[in-house]
Write a structure and sequence with these properties.
The complex is a heterodimer of chains A (378) and B (103). Chain A starts with a strand and ends with a strand. Helix content of chain A is 36%, strand content 18%. By secondary structure, chain A is an alpha/beta fold. Chain A has a domain at 3-113 and 208-217: 3-Layer(aba) Sandwich (Peroxisomal Thiolase, Chain A, domain 1), CATH 3.40.47.10. Chain B is built from no helices and eight strands. Chain B has strands spanning 5-9, 15-16, 31-35, 39-48, 62-69, 74-79, 88-94, 97-102. A five-stranded antiparallel β-sheet of chain B has the order 6-5-4-7-8, with no helix packed on it. In chain B, strand 5 (62-69) and strand 6 (74-79) form a beta hairpin. The relative contact order of chain B is 0.24. Classes of the chains: A alpha/beta (378), B mainly beta (103). At the A-B interface, helix 4, helix 5 and strand 5 of A face strand 4, strand 5 and strand 6 of B. The complex binds zinc ion. Zinc ion binds at residues 9, 11-12, 14, 23, 25-26, 28 of chain B.
């Protein structure tokens, strides 16, 4: 009963002078135009947060800016999983009969709206204030700890992880809205500056300005009916110090629930939109979800499994690693791409027919997982 | 002893680091503060080359590790930059921060 009926996105990269609300507004106007809905049809809104514009009530701030008078509005916060969480929440609002058309929107000038030091410092405070942040840890450091553990457990190596960065860049090359569009090789990734071992600069997603919006409706509209048929969440810990020994546990729980509620299995999937804040993030998810063998995500990428013509096309817009990561809108770009591909509107990036897709995001350090299944019904 | 404080559940014996009034394993509320003996095994380690604040930037980076203490909990600590996963180490509070030394 919940359909993704409108998608809108800005260019990702640098938007000097544009504030989070400007970027969100651009994305919403695009999503409204895409859906064919009039503004007054939107009776629900879930927005994310913006680190460059912290506000206690971003939901109503966005409503005021856009002139919306919804029956429900609020601001969701779940780190990198916020957009995915908001889409699942929108589905629940519709299932409950509370709303008919819920606008989900995120946008932030994370790149030009603050200094690089401020961005890194803000993100680092996601760590435990007493037991992690004082050690000088950062988000890349937290993921580096997980990356090192992943490599240790699986026997995969850094060059294999680099394949995922190369793949994401290859996918971004042809996308006019992507932030990073210069081809890279495994050697480039390996030679890029160390950020936090074993992560090099090109294992990490960039900081980005951008906005994205998705409309979730109780009915399909003029375009192909893309139904959200299954969803799952897992919240296994918050801080990396308390992550379960099994790095893929949360992804597996959320993924299993999503497939169970959809009445589908991973083998039914022909298209993927998977969160890729760092190369090991993507590897851990692909393997936990059963889309690659343990330790084999990088090799599978090299062999073409996740390419446009492969068995499981993945993040065809370039993912966070190359399309860019402006916070809440980061993963929403995956959704915009997946929906566009499922509709057959992806132009020169278009995959063969893809009627069923799986999307997955995490917030924190593999802390909060949200997975969902999308199916095209017409 | 290490100077690193932990919490221990008097009902089930589970030990952890973060302050909480209820045992995460069994939900009992009879909790004791204990001091880690200091022995542990490296669960993961990294050398941070881009610090979150400029004053922390160190040439060659500085080490941070997750170490599984012999009492059970995994904690984050400052560390040498070249630790190997599985290595036996000693943890001791230095300037208020858990710090790893080679055993
Ligand atoms: Zn207990």
């Amino acid at each position: 009963m919940a359909y993704l009926t409108g998608i809108g996105i800005t260019a990702y990269g640098k938007h000097p002078g544009l504030q989070p609300l400007d970027l969100m507004e651009q994305a919403v106007l695009a999503a409204l135009a895409d859906s064919g809905l009039q503004r007054d049809a939107l009776d629900g809104l879930i927005t994310g947060y913006a680190t460059t514009h912290p506000h206690l009530m971003m939901g109503t701030v966005v409503c005021e800016r856009l002139g919306l008078k919804p029956r429900h509005a609020h601001q969701a916060q779940c780190g990198g999983a916020t957009g995915a969480m908001a889409l699942v929440l929108a589905r629940h609002l519709i299932a409950a009969g509370a709303c008919r058309h819920v606008l989900v929107v995120g946008g932030e000038n994370r790149l030009t709206g603050q200094s690089r030091d401020d961005a890194v410092k803000t993100l680092a405070t996601v760590g435990h204030p007493e037991h992690e942040v004082p050690l000088g840890a950062s988000i890349p450091a937290y993921y580096a700890l997980l990356a090192a553990r992943y490599l240790h457990e699986t026997g995969a190596n850094e060059a294999e992880l680099a394949e995922l960065a190369v793949l994401m860049r290859r996918h971004a090359l042809g996308h006019p809205l992507a932030q990073l569009r210069k081809a890279i090789t495994v050697e480039d990734v390996m030679a890029s500056k160390p950020v936090s071992t074993p992560l090099k600069l090109l294992d990490c997603c960039p900081i980005t300005d951008g906005g994205a919006a998705v409309i979730v409706s109780a009915e399909p509209l003029a375009k192909a009916a893309i139904k959200l048929t299954g969803w799952g969440e897992a919240h296994t810990h918050q801080h990396v110090s308390e992550i379960p020994d099994d790095l893929g546990l949360g992804a597996r729980i959320a993924g299993a629930a999503a497939f169970e509620t959809a009445g589908r299995k991973p083998a039914d999937v022909g298209l993927l939109g998977i969160y890729d804040s760092f190369t090991p993030t993507l590897a851990i998810f692909l393997e936990a979800l059963g889309f690659a063998p343990p330790g084999g995500a990088g090799r599978a990428a090299r062999e073409g499994r996740f390419g446009r013509d492969g068995a499981l096309p993945l993040n065809l817009h370039g993912g966070l690693l190359s399309f860019g990561h402006p916070g809440v809108a980061g993963f929403m770009a995956h959704v915009v791409e997946v929906v566009g591909q499922m509709r057959g509107e992806a132009g020169n990036r278009q995959v063969r027919d893809a009627p069923l897709a799986y999307c997955h995001a995490d917030g924190g350090t593999l802390s909060s997982h949200v997975g969902f299944v999308l199916e095209r019904l017409s | 002893m290490s100077g690193v404080a932990l919490f221990s559940c008097r009902a089930c014996g589970h030990v952890w680091q973060f302050r909480r009034a209820m045992c995460p394993a069994c939900a009992a509320t009879d909790i004791a503060v204990v001091e880690a003996k200091g022995g542990g095994t490296v669960w993961s380690a990294t050398s941070v080359h881009r610090a979150p604040t400029p004053d922390l930037d160190v040439a060659g980076g500085y080490g941070i590790a997750l170490v599984t203490l012999d009492e059970g909990p995994r904690i984050m600590a400052r560390a040498p930059t070249d630790l190997v996963i599985g290595e036996r180490v000693t943890v001791r509070a230095e300037n208020g921060l858990p710090t790893i030394f080679r055993a």
